[in-house]
Amino acid sequence: MIRTKLSEAFISLAQSNINYSLGLNTQLTKETLCQRTGELCVMRAYFERQQYLIDYALAALLRRKARNLGLLLVYTLLVFLFASVLLLSQGLRREAAILLQDAPEMIVQRLVAGRHDVLPAVELETLRRIRGVGEVRGRLWGYYYDPVTKANYTVMAAPERNLSNDRMLIGIALSRVRQVGVGDVLSLRAADGTPALFRIAGVLESTSELLSADLVLVSAAAFRTLFQMPPDQYTDATLTVRNPREASLIAQKISLALPASRPLLRTEILRTYHAVFDWREGITFLCLAPLLLAFLVLAWDKAAGLSPEEKREIGILKAIGWETGDILRMKLWESALLSLTAFLIGYLLAWWQVFYAGGRLFTPVLKGWSVLYPDFRLTPAVGLAQILVLLAVTTLPYMVATLIPGWRAAITDPDAAMRG
What we know:
It contains 16 helices and 13 strands. By secondary structure, the protein is of the alpha+beta class. It has 2 domains: 2-97 and 274-419, no CATH class; 107-265, Barwin-like endoglucanases. Helix 3 (39-63) packs across helix 12. Its main location: membrane.
């Protein structure tokens, strides 16, 4: 009975076993001939053994194409989704850090009842008198709701642009949504209800639309007319610090001199951006958690339950002289080939989707714009820590799940394994 099963099994596995056996025999011959050559020959024999194991593991995967192809597709989808979120969020953090390098060192806002209020011009002189403070400028900016697009524009006075009172510069996203360009007239409604007509003098084509997507630049006089703001008031103030290492100390002095003010450091703004992206990234991962759990259940079901054919194959390998360690290494190579292939394909697809296709899959979640979505491409970058974390989450559980049933079958008596 046993001999009959052995004969049938030998026929089905002849090609793979012959290749591996020839490899082992060749390796043993080389080990015998090279005993005097030292460690170099031992290393060569070790790598050749692994090569034969990889060849056999690849042949075993190809013998079960349908099962492994389905698992590969699900595996690739999982890696693609998680890698897309990681790459997009990391790219947005990097973009925010680059943009904030040119932001003011400190912003001072006035608070009334815990809410942002206009800043009197006399408080600018108070800021200039504080030791350690450099240049102080009052800023004019605000939000304008456009009922046509149902979006909020960021309107800002730009004295350095030397715009006339009837001219404006608009962001490229606003230009797309309103379908206007240079020379067209854009009508806004002032705070007193009167129409304000502006001719578009240019479209802001910044290196990153994160800053200029919904931006409208006008002159200071036009801003005050549009929002009915008196000439002795500003939205907030920006200032420079002579010694950047004393920025926190200067902020404390400002809080003492102007108790109703709130100083904001550039580093604090950057931390706020990072916190926002971390929160949105966490929400996205939480939505993807059921998919990860379903994959782990599928992987465990596929790997933990060896089919009778696989058990019979392991029994035959034990009968022809394979050791338990060889079988475990072969199963490890099977899982490694499958998981690393899925990881590579999924990561490359995510890379293309984020950096070259606009990252449209998770962009609405992570960018946070409601109507005027900025259209820009992130700078490709590779984070080693990010890759290692993704590998640990997606690859290690499957590899561990394949070793346990393989070890159980490997320590079983060959006769019992071949009988199923």
